[in-house]
Structure formats: C-alpha cells, structure tokens
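Assemble and predict.
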Amino acid sequence: MNCSPRYTYKDYIAFDRLPHLWCSGCGHGLILKSVALSLSDAQLPPDQVVIATGIGCSGRSGDYVTTHKFQGTHGRTLAFATGIKLSKPELTVVCIMGDGDCGAIGGNHLLHAARRDLDVVAIVSNNLNYGMTGGQFSPLTPENSITSTSRGGKQEKNMDICEIVRAAGATMVARTTVYHITQLRKMLHTALNTKGFTLIEVLTPCPTYYGRYNKLGAAADMMKWLRKKVIPLKQYNKLSAEEKREYYWRGTLVKNEVSASE
Amino acid sequence: MAQEGFIQGNEACARGAIAAGARFFAGYPISPASEIAEVCSELMPQVGGHYVQMEDEIASIAAVIGASLTGTKAFTATSGPGFSLMQENIGLAIMAEVPCVIINAQRFGLSTGVATKPAQGDVMQARWGTHGDHAVITLAPTTVQECFDLTVTAFNLAERFRSPVFLFTDAATAHLREKIIIKEPGELEIINRKPAYNAPEEPYVIDDKQVSILPNYGDSSILRVTGLVHDSRGFSSSDPEIATTLTRRLIAKIEDYQNELPQPVWYGTTRPQVLIISYGIVTRAARAAMERLIARGLEVGVMSLPTLWPFPQSEVARACSRARWVFVPEMNYGQIAREVRAASRATPVFGIYRTDTNILTPNDIIAEVKKVVGLK
C-alpha cells in the first residue's frame, strides 16, 4: 500500500525566494533545511507552524519559508514567541536565533523562556561571531579567537549556553553541528515531539569572518574543523579539565520528559 | 447591565480593556501602573484570557505583539522607565501593523524620578520615542470614567488603524477613585479585526483607508511579519520605492483620518477671549479656573484634548485664531505648548508649567491668566 506522506521538506521552503543572501559556505541554509525536514517528519501543516527569528544572518531564515514567519527585534524572539504560544497553543513555534541574538542581547529572555518551560523549539545557530555586522565577537566566541573587535584574541571567557539553559529549567537541551546533519534532524524531531522548552545549539561555519580571521580555511575545511572539534558527549566527559577546553561536546544534555505525541 | 463602581483609574483601565475584548495582558510591575497588572492577573483568567508577568518591559510589549498576531486583543501597562524600554518594539508594532494598546501611567521626572508622583513629561516621547519617521495615536483621559471609556476607544482604534495606541494617564489619575458607570460589552461599540483571505503568492490587501488586512498566525493565509522594510507579501526588501511607499502609507493611514479620532471637548464658550488648552488631569484644574475667572468677568473657554497625537493642528489653529490669549497649562516644560505655538499664527501662547511633583492647580492657572490679562 502506498501511503506517501502529505508534506515533504519542499513544502516548507519558499523556492521562489531563492537564492538566499547567506555567503557560500555558511551553514544557516543547512539548519533551515533540517528544520524543514523535521517539520515534514512530523507532518505539520505549514499554516500551523510559526518560524520566529531575531536579527542577524540567521534572522533572515523566515524569508525562505512557506510557514508563518515572524522576525522581531534583536534578541527578543523568545519574548514574542511567548505571546504567540500562550495565545494560540495549538501552533508549533520554532525559534531560530543567532549566538549574539540569543546569548548577548536576548540572554534575559532565554533564561526566562527556559524557566517558564515555554513550549517552543529554540535553535541557536552558533557561528561563533556576529556575521551580519562584520565578524565581531559574541559571548559564545571561544577565548583567544581573532575577530574584528578582538584583533589580539578575545579576552573574555566563552559562555556555555547549554549549561545555562539547563540550570534555568529547560526540558530538553542538546548540541550538534551542521556537519552532523543527521543528528541535527533527529534532535529536531525529538524537540518537535517534546512538550516544554527545547533548545538545540547548532555549531555552524562562518568562513567569511570567523573562519578567515582564525585561519580555519574555506567552507569544506571548516566542516572538517567542526568534525574534529565537536565530539560525542560521552567521549567529552572522559576528558581532563584541561583537554575539555579544546573541544565542544555534542549530544543530548537534558531530556526530562517523554515524547508528547509518540 | 451597566454597573456603577467606585474605583481607581488603573482599575477602570483594566476593566475597560476587558470590556473592549482584551484577552491578553503581559506586563512588568512598576509604580504607578501596577494595579492594572494586579487587576488583570485576577480578571483575565476569569474571562478565558491570559495574564503573564514577563522578565522586563521589553519582553512585555514583545509578548503583547506576539499575542496580537494570533488575533487576540492584547495590551500592557507601564510608566516612564518601562515606556522607555518598550520603544524599539513599539516601532516594530507600527512597522508590522500590529494592533495593541499601551497604557502609560506617567510619573514624575527624568530617569527614576519620583515614582509615586504625577507628571505629563512623556508626551513628546509618545510622539517621537521610537526611531524613524512614523505616526502614532495617543489618548489622554481626564477622569476615571474616561479611563474606562478611552481604553475601550483605544482598543477600537488599534483594530481600526492596525497600530499601537497609547493611553496616557498619570500617577494622580491612576490612583484617583471616582464613581463611574461600567458598561457591559453589549452596551459598547466594539471594533473587531477584519479577517483576511489571500493565497500565499498574493499580496496582502490594503483597505480603502490604507490599512493592511493581514491574516493571523494559524490562519490558512500565511502571515509574514518583519520589522524590515517589506513588500506587499511581507518579504524583506531594500528597494527605495518600496521603502518610501511603505513609510508614507504608515503615516498617512493615521494622519489622513484624524477625524475618526476623539475630537477636542469644549467647556464654556467656544469663542473665548481667554482660551485654555489642556489635557489629562490638568483639564480638571482648567475647568475650575475657568469658572472662577468667568466670575471675575472674563470670557473664558477650555479646549480639552482627548487625542494628543496626531496633534489636532487645524482645530487648535482655528480656536487660537479666535482668541486674544491662549494658555497651555501642563505638568511638564511645555511639550504640548510647543505644538500649540506652532499652530497659533498670531495669538500669543502662554505656557503654565508645573514640574515640582505636585498636581497643577486652578490657582496656578488663575495667577498666570490674571497677570497676563492685567486683572488684579
């Protein structure tokens, strides 16, 4: 019996809006396609989905989707999403935010969305810098990194957004990269089927600024860098404190609730 | 059935909002507006609505905007410091044509000022608080009854114009208790949002009054919202023609329809020699001063402005041209007097400013009028 699914990922992408404005080698398109794939995995009608974004490179994601779109002010995505979700709980709300968007200017809203356990999927597209404005460092930029506002290396400590959101009370917290694209799709699928605040941090290359300033090579080299730099959580946990400074973990840090619809 | 109540201005605002159909309140506690949040935290769940206490005022107005985009009438209430924090998102609401109501119970002073004392110092901030060219609607009640009535009007105007509407009270009106008539929703004129139907590839319809008819989140028509300059389908654009057409329409859709906003209210003669132009709580002092000055033989009239923005330029100009002296008493350093001076071609305009945390009194007005007209 042929029971082909009603929606494929193509039903969520506004192909007439392409090409997108992202640089070649940028991972934001991969994240958006993963969102589309996970929405089709969940067979959600596009008119029952709101993709909410902030400002910056990832903030343009809403221009390329067929779902409802919301692009607010810088950093406030989760606060807007609170009103949307409370007023119409039947909608699926996916928030796509950048590392500066969510970690710096929007940090307060992130804490409180996690504390309230707001039932949205929050994606932090972490390209390790402010791309749209020319490659300045963000709170999530690793220490000693060269950026356009840290020519001698970033002096401040890096912020672990996953640990912060776990402490604030999120239901699910996970991290992966656009190199580990099948893991990303699975995590998104789990998040879409989880009631409560779910955050997925996705490391993604910015060869135009972060990669160039830090001599990490072109797009493909940065993908290899992500593969090497980001290791499974279990493996990471076995490292010494000194070794941990050199790596990111990937995997699911917190998953507190059983799937709502499975 | 309409009910009588003996309630304070803040409660009248909250009850007016619910009577107008508001079903979502997001806010952050601040003096002297907190009672609006407190009343909503009790009443909203009773009418099937939501009360949410956000982490700050930026988040409060953001949640209000989000709720409104699902088709729910939504509002927040704050005072000066919170109103300052809201400015960026207010610009988004204007740009994206999001109906919502923001109540500002004005308190005294710059910065933290004096949190429990009244002022009218945020009037210009209402007009120009957010960046970029734009138009706004601002209403100012003079009594507790008007706190109720004008809050209902504010929601109606928000839906009619698809724009944020500001309701400006002050610490004195917010906490003043008066007898009022609380009408039931069935006894009030209520304007609801127009439903939208368009296919995703079609532009949004703009009605005959230059207002976009937009779908809500969850409708089969897709809603695309952005603070970026956007085309008629809601996609971002940097095209000069689209940018200028959008900006011009967002201003014209309000400023070309001023006749639909609450019009100036006259007390005394409408062709006075001594014209007092006032708004908010100061109208009460102006009316009392008028009675006493008439008793002294002067021809006095009070023109009270329920709508501050867009400023009723032509009505004020006409009134000024018929008067010999114009007085503008207000609890700031002349924010509306400046507008009156711009409107009055030949008649001199005298500001009467009280900025010491106290309410402006009839005596303040009488003293200045006597001095100017040479009455002993």
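The mean pLDDT of chain A is 95.
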